[in-house]
Amino acid sequence: MVEPGVRAEELRECEHGGFTVRGVSVTDFSVNLNPYGPPDFIFDALKACMGEIKNYPDVESVQLKALIARKFGCPESEVLVGAGVSELIQLVAIGFVKKRAVIPAYTYGEYEKSVRMMGAEVKKIEMPGLELKPELLSEAMQPDDVVFLCNPNNPTGQYIPNDGLSLLIDEAERVDALLVLDEAYIDFVNDAFPSHSYLSSTGNLLILRSLTKSFAIPGVRVGYALGSEPVISVLRQLKAPWSVSVFAQRIGEAVLGAAGDKFIEDTRWKISKSKRRLERELGVHSDANFYILDTGRVASEVRDELLSRGLAVRDCTSFGLPSHIRFAVRKDEENEILMEMLKHLCL
User: Fold this and answer.
1) Least enclosed by CB within 10 Å: which of 28, 142, 256, 327?
2) 247 and 331: one domain?
3) CATH at 301
4) How far, in whole angstroms, is CA 135 from its chain's centroid?
């Protein structure tokens, strides 16, 4: 038998939210999607490009890349379009992880999996009280490290503001590490700092963004990376040639205009309003569009009890938090049902 290059037992399988059993009526709080999407103009864009199914996708996603560059005021050579953030994370691991990567103790599982695929060490930074402290990440940085930071963090929802980002970027430059800032949920943060403004002054920062969460289009794999030309060039050479479909490119082009900006602004306001009641009733806090809750019980049992009542939440055991669940903010009438069930089961 041919021996693999990496032992399967070294790769912890990543769990993800999403309940997709056909014929079962479930309100899905387990995925952190915008509850008001997808907007109609996405379906219009999809219908308009159906004839392109016979064409190979543009390898460079030229039109989409140009729109992204214009939106962020950077050269197109500093943009790479990928099949979602997960593909980009793997490219970062292949291209830049040498001996070690640094990640928070409780965060998105694909960072650790991608690093271990490269046979590298994973240095986990403690999060006392589930709080991510930038100074602890900064103190841990060593030369050639790749530091993954999900901002706001999944599953805790904590957002690191500019003072913390500045500390991390300065330290990454000082020791010559690469700070990878995953902003998949940034559109749900009120008054988020424009982290891309640092890109003109540092080559040690890479920003990853996704369109999946903001527009509720998980079936369309599209995301992008912003970084210095040397970093983007490495990722571009590693990327599979046709990973971003024609449909993903056209939908990406549709959402990056004025209609997409208005949709995000309008729905962020609605979600913020819904969050105020959730936080008041359940005693939780988050800077993102989801919450983590310590049930005081075995999380998988709470998940199963909720599922039996038609409500899907994320069991956080795979994050290393066996008594916690994560749930997204949905529309008010759906949130009310979940709140009442949580009060009954574990509060």
Assistant:
1) 142
2) no
3) 3.90.1150.10
4) 22
pLDDT recorded at residue 347: 79
Which residue, of 209, 229, 258, is where some domain finishes?
258
Range of the domain at 337: 8-38+259-346
Q: Please check whether residue 198 lies inside any domain of the structure.
A: yes
Put simply, whether the predicted model's pTM sits higher than 0.85 gets the answer: yes
CB 64 within 8 A of CB 57: no
What are the DSSP E strand ranges found in 83-191?
100-104, 121-125, 146-150, 178-182
Model pLDDT, residue 116: 97
- 212 located within any domain: yes
pLDDT in tens, 218-268: 999 999 999 999 999 999 999 999 999 999 999 999 999 999 999 999 999
The residue among 318, 275, 280, 325 whose CA lies nearest residue 298 is 325
Given a cut of 60, whether residue 22 has pLDDT beyond it is: no
pLDDT score, position 25 = 81
Cα 152 versus chain centre, distance: 8
Number of structural domains (the chain) is: 2
Same domain, 253 and 269: no
Question: Tens digit of pLDDT for each residue in 165-218?
Answer: 999 999 999 999 999 999 999 999 999 999 999 999 999 999 999 999 999 999
**Dihedral of alpha carbons 42, 84, 231, 158, sign:** positive
Helices 258-282 & 332-346, crossing angle to 10 degrees? 30
Task: Confirm if 22 and 203 have CB atoms less than 8 A apart.
Answer: no
Is 231 a member of any domain?
Answer: yes
Alpha-carbon distance 318 to 280, whole Å? 28
- Which pLDDT score is estimated for 9? 53
Dihedral, CA of residue 107, residue 111, residue 113 and residue 118, to nearest 10: -150
Place of tokens 């009542």: 309
CB 313 within 8 A of CB 343: no
Q: Find where tokens 């706001």 sit.
A: 152
Beta pairing partners, 79: 226
Residues 205 and 294 in one domain: no
Reported as type and span, the H/E element at residue 223 is: strand 223-227
Amino acid at 88: L
